[in-house]
Amino acid sequence: MRASKLNELQSQLHSQGITFAYCGCITENILTGIGSALKNKLESEDVDTRTTRSIFAVFVEQMQNIIRYSARQASAEQDKPLKNADDHSRYGILTIGQVGDDFIIHSGNLIVAADVPGIRARLTDLQNKSPEELKIAYKSQLRNLQELEEGAGVGFMEIARRTSRPIEFEFEEVDDEHTFFAIKATI
C-alpha cells in the first residue's frame, strides 16, 4: 500500500472519531496485548474508572465473539471461510472511537449464515430490555451459568448492560453460507 493510501485511511478514521482500529487475525494473545495497550491509552487520557471498565469489558466481549464465532481464518493467500471449527486463527475487525462524550466500539466478522436468525433474535431481545430488565436477566443467567454451554449469550448481555444506548447490529449477506456480522456499542 502506498503512503498516500495509508495517509488517506488514517484521515478517514480520524474524521470519524476512530482512535483505535485493528483488522486481522485475532487470538487470545492478541486480545491480551491490545487490551493492555487500550487500558494504558484510557488511563493516559484520564477517562473515568467506570467508563474505562465499561469500554474494556465491551472490547473484550467483542474480541472474544470474533475469536469464538468468526467463520473466517487469516490466511497468507487470502481470507478463507473456516473448514475446521477448531482453528483458532480467527479474522475480524474492531474499532474504538469517540464522538463527543460517547465512546463507540464497533466490531465485525464473517459468520455462518445459519446462525443469523438466532443472533438477530437474541440481540433484538436485548435491544428491547430496559436497564433494570437487563440487570435482572443478567443476574438470572449468571445463577444458571452451570447449566449453560460456554458463551450462551452472556457476552451479548454483558455488552448490552454496559452500553448507554441499545446495541446496534447489522448483517450483510456474503454468499449462501456466510454473512458479515457487525455490532456497535455506545458507552
Task: Kindly describe this structure.
By secondary structure, the protein is an alpha+beta fold. The chain is 45% helix and 26% strand. The protein has helices spanning 3-15, 28-44, 49-69, 116-127, 131-143, 154-162; strands at residues 18-26, 72-73, 80-81, 90-99, 102-112, 168-173, 178-186. A five-stranded antiparallel beta sheet has the order 1-4-5-7-6. The radius of gyration is 17 Å and the shape is globular. The model has no long low-confidence stretch (mean pLDDT 88).
Quickly describe the structure.
By secondary structure, the protein is an alpha+beta fold.
Dominant shape? globular
- Overall helicity: 40-55%
Distance between the termini: 33 Å
**Strand residues, percent:** 25-35%
Radius of gyration, Cα only, in angstroms? Answer: 17 Å
SSE-based structural type: alpha+beta
Neighbour order of strands in the largest sheet: 1-4-5-7-6
Average pLDDT, to the nearest integer? 88
SS summary, helix count: 6
The SSE string, one letter per element, is HEHHEEEEHHHEE
List how many beta strands DSSP finds: 7
Task: Please outline the major beta sheet.
Answer: 5 strands, antiparallel
pLDDT below 50 for ≥5 consecutive residues: which ranges?
none
Give me the secondary-structure topology.
Layout: H1 3-15, E1 18-26, H2 28-44, H3 49-69, E2 72-73, E3 80-81, E4 90-99, E5 102-112, H4 116-127, H5 131-143, H6 154-162, E6 168-173, E7 178-186
Antiparallel strand pairs: 1-4, 2-3, 4-5, 5-7, 6-7
